[in-house]
What we know:
Blueprint: E1 2-9, E2 12-19, H1 28-39, H2 42-56, H3 60-67, H4 72-84, H5 90-106, H6 110-123, H7 127-139, H8 143-156, H9 159-176
Amino acid sequence: MSSAQTVLKGSFLFCVTLVSISFSVPGPEYDAGMASLKKGAIEDARVKLTQAYQKNGSDPLVKFAYAQVASCSTALRLYRELRDVKTVSDSIRAKASMRLGDHAFATRDYTKAAEAYRLATRTDSRPIYKHYWALAAAASGEEESAQSLWHTLSLEYGDEVSQMAQYYLGLLQLKKGNIET
């Protein structure tokens, strides 16, 4: 909600726009649920996050947290919703895409996993998404794509990411038979 006011100050005329911004606060159930989740108290987290979701299920942060303790079918539906709504923050959309990719990878649908991780990479530039994309590409037989992704990671990011990428490039070369053990 915004409103405009015209203000005469000295001999200058200013147009001032007042904007009202509301921030959603997930609430105590969310906080308690996340604390339980961090402690590994999954059942307590499930109870608290279910309560938070029932109170404020439209909040993307609450929805994502609830999906972590919901049934698989419910979690997949929620992750798809979060991924597809453009008004949800990029970081949450990327995490939701990653979770969908994790599910596809676990069910051995590596092509679908690679696509989900690619989407996460387009939404958020964190290198971990590109790494998972490369893993899924390699698992689906797209070794050249995986090699290109890891090569990019080895050049564009700091020591830790670069070392990880170099390690996986080495494993890929070993798999191809280009390195003797």
